Amino acid sequence: xxxxxxxxxxxxxxxxxxxxxxxxxxxxxxxxxxxxxxxxxxxxxxxxxxxxxxxxxxxxxxxxxxxxxxxxxxxxxxxxxxxxxxxxxxxxxxxxxxxxxxxxxxxxxxxxxxxxxxxxxxxxxxxxxxxxxxxxxxxxxxxxxxxxxxxxxxxxxxxxxxxxxxxxxxxxxxxxxxxxxxxxxxxxxxxxxxxxxxxxxxxxxxxxxxxxxxxxxxxxxxxxxxxxxxxxxxxxxxxxxxxxxxxxxxxxxxxxxxxxxxxxxxxxxxxxxxxxxxxxxxxxxxxxxxxxxxxxxxxxxxxxxxxxxxxxxxxxxxxxxxxxxxxxxxxxxxxxxxxxxxxxxxxxxxxxxxxxxxxxxxxxxxxxxxxxxxxxxxxxxxxxxxxxxxxxxxxxxxxxxxxxxxxxxxxxxxxxxxxxxxxxxxxxxx
Length: 430
Fold this sequence. Notes:
By secondary structure, this protein is an alpha/beta fold.
């Protein structure tokens, strides 16, 4: 495929490639910045990350050998509050990816109007090849290497790809040992016993369900009976699929790294989850047809939920997509070059910075509860999550109509407007 390059930006010298995750994300930023007539100085401030950290992490392996891993942490913008963003452990981690994800977190927190900025972190490793002891030593070494920027008032990590609540517990403990007192609010996504929030694990998938319902309303379609395909059957995808089915949708396809499943009459999502837990992957599930990876996104459906990784919907495969609605459960699943084609096809896209913001919203609830020392019921968490997701959806819809743009550019415009307003009020320290 020919690499797509596009001129964007007030200073008329930016040529961006959609193959680079940061530049792909920033191409949307540039369109919104033009709509807002952002002045050149503030444009430059918002287009550049605040801080980028690269650390070497020497670890004693179980074999007795020493291995050195590379870790990253990027604070993109903290004008609205502490940095907020997950930590991923994966062989594919790059600084460009972490930078893009930190920027996405900045806009995401602004879209749902919670008082956080954006950050992200990652370590280049294959966690499946590391023992529990090696994972703990790597997590603690990474935490201690970036500890100067961590804190409830400065930068608050969370789980992401291949990290979980146990690893968040190690981060909290490491930070607390350095501070000489327990600091539960330094990290979110923790176990309930350590100050985690009820409803946090389900929050991103639940938020996807809420915005799916609202998107279908805009098209005059009911959620009941809507045919849904979910790519990525991890925490986000499996919970979104389960909740959508509970609310009347028919989930006809799911996939994970092993392959995809399709049943036109509908899958029993709980049964697929049980099969995956028993066999690790969905491949081999007996009550559905196997679907090759390249064909999965183009299955017939009303709603497509890409909940895996970045850049899975591209200019190459987007003409074959049959969904009326796309709910971006993953960060950056749609490459910039596919946006115009989706618009021409009339596909209603709920962008990542809105669709998957349920996770960071309940992370905010967890941070608030930790700082107050007062914890909410799961019912209250879910109620407040629904209020924020529905209000944010309607805010983005209103902006998209005001500027006559799609929901993605509407979300970026709303987010940038909010971040830029704070910068104008705070001024510049020199």
